[in-house]
Amino acid sequence: MTVIEANQTVLLGVVIVCAVAASVVLERWRFGKVLSSALIAMMLGMLLVNVRLIPDSAPFYGFIYSSLVPIALPLFLYEAEWKRVATEAGQLAKLFAAGAVGVLLGAMLAALIVDVGENSKDWASVFAASYVGGTVNFLSVATSLELPEKEIAVALAVDTIAGMTLLAFLLVLPVVKVIAGLFPQEIGSMGADALDPESRLMDSMAVKATSAAMGLAVSVTIYVLSRLVAQGIGGETYLTLIVTAITLVLANAYPQTMSKLRASYGLGVLIMLAFFFIVGVSANLHELRESGLDFVLFIATIIVCHLIAILSIARIFGFRLSEAIVVSCACAMGPTVAAGVAGSKRWINLVTPGIVLGIFGYATANFLGLALARTLGVLD
């Protein structure tokens, strides 16, 4: 039982708006700059759900994830160039491959050293699919392998907490000097649209309100069209890809017109902060405690191997830490999180490559997970 119930949409909306506003304000403080607004929003969500002020699931959360987040994506892409996107995505594919290999090796190691019951090797395959694709791949592979529903519920609860912990670590990583110093210095401006947070928010919300409103209107139109296309081809999973493709076509066909909508960028940041709040809400520690901690070490082994692989390759080949972080998000948590991190961190050039690589992960994760299941079965 929570103070605000799942059907009290207006109250939940007020809480989320206040949390987003608080994360923006707190980011201006010294500790806030270390944490970042995205992590602050996530921590607020986690706090409020665990003091039982708000529920861990509600229809309004689904609306934010399924509708507002796709609407936010075009707001980051109005000045994206085909050539730059292709170059960035091609280069970052090396990092994605490294992260995926790290996940597969970590899953195999976890199956050998961590005992989660008689289905340990099957769970290695499920988590491999999850950390190369996402939760959809987790459920798909778990169902294909006919794992017990009770175990699936426990594993999914732990997986949610583990994913949030990984995201928090990645968001803080740029301020860890020992690690950040190992990588090339970040470029001060990641594109013409990468302004500092305060300037961007002021620009979008006050100085150029008309431009921001037009940008939002175009984004909503793109979203509606993309959803119709997705429904027509029977592939809601590819909504993010369709939204991105349409926006890129417009941005490159009408560059001058679309660049005038750049003031709407700040609105995209605010929507993504609401998304990160929802990510934090999913980390219900009461549920985790009740379910047990059997899978924690198993997943931790996979995550550590993933991080070692992707950071090592980034260091060896001279990638920036920002690139490693966004690609790790794309690999382990999917295109939406990758775009959200890149957008909230003002790494604008990395938004589209993050989406592209995340969708590639969606498309290949089931194959990798089931292939690993067969391999482990042969070795057994």
TrEMBL record:
Annotated transmembrane regions: 6-27, 34-54, 60-80, 92-114, 126-145, 152-176, 237-257, 263-283, 295-318, 324-343, 350-373
Keywords: Membrane, Transmembrane, Transmembrane helix
Stated name of the protein: DUF819 family protein
